[in-house]
Design a protein that fits this description.
globular, Thrombin, subunit H, 1 helix, about 230 residues
Length: about 230
């Protein structure tokens, strides 16, 4: 099983990033600003060497003419990241050069600390993960935020979301965006952290809880790192 609901169309989730290491796909990520991307801390080493981001294409085997690729200049893991339970599972990637904003490569809004995404909120996840390898085409699925009681080992920095019609996130989807439409803007509600491949609800890093750590990049500063 994989993130199902059908292949996504080019430009449908324009903030979606494939995080590459030495030209091999390792995780998903999302574009926050032209210079910065975000993924989960479990997806990256502390050193930036070998990492790059691919954006503007949904096909990993045959890149769209709209693709852009940028090397990662620096990796910043959250200083409180816990490798055992994946608490504070977030990392920022500073890019060597800014991504050009187009119809196929766009930023996603960062929710502030005071925003709330309640149980029942409709969200969408996207990624290339699968139970038997990596998908060639980006997949999308609808999720609903559910009670934390439906997931194991959840802290206040995580949220629990259930895939609609037995869909779910799988290995390879880590770091990928969980987004929700608020009025006319899409917000990054979570990052795929712990997956069940449709056998239960999945765990996502709660982005409202990460806002204060992320906020310095919006002012041209660098975040504290592990």
């Amino acid at each position: 099983m994989n993130i199902i609901g059908g292949p996504a169309q080019d430009g449908e989730w324009p903030w979606q990033i494939a995080l590459m290491w030495n030209n091999i796909y390792v995780c998903s990520a999302a574009l926050l600003t032209p210079d910065w991307a975000v993924t989960t801390a479990q997806c990256v080493n502390q050193e930036a060497s070998g990492y790059s981001i691919l954006i503007g294409t949904n096909n990993l085997a045959e890149w769209s003419p709209n693709y852009q690729r940028q090397p990662v200049a620096s990796v910043y893991k959250h200083p409180e990241y816990n490798t055992r339970i994946h608490d504070f599972d977030v990392a920022l990637l500073r890019l060597t050069d800014p991504v050009e904003i187009t119809d196929y490569s766009r930023t996603i809004c960062i929710p502030t600390t005071d925003m709330s995404f309640e149980v029942g909120t409709t969200c969408y996840a996207s990624g290339w993960g699968s139970s038997d390898g990596i998908n060639e085409f980006l997949q999308e699925a609808q999720f609903s935020i559910t009670s934390s009681n439906n997931c194991e080992g959840v802290t206040s920095n995580m949220l629990c979301a259930d895939g609609i019609e037995s869909s779910g996130a799988c290995a390879g989807d880590e770091g990928g965006p969980l987004v929700s439409l608020v009025d006319t803007r899409w917000y990054l509600v979570g990052l795929t952290s712990k997956t069940t491949c449709g056998s239960g609800a999945d765990v996502f890093t709660r982005m409202t809880a990460m806002y204060e750590w992320i906020a310095p990049i919006l002012d041209g500063e660098t975040p504290l790192s592990k």
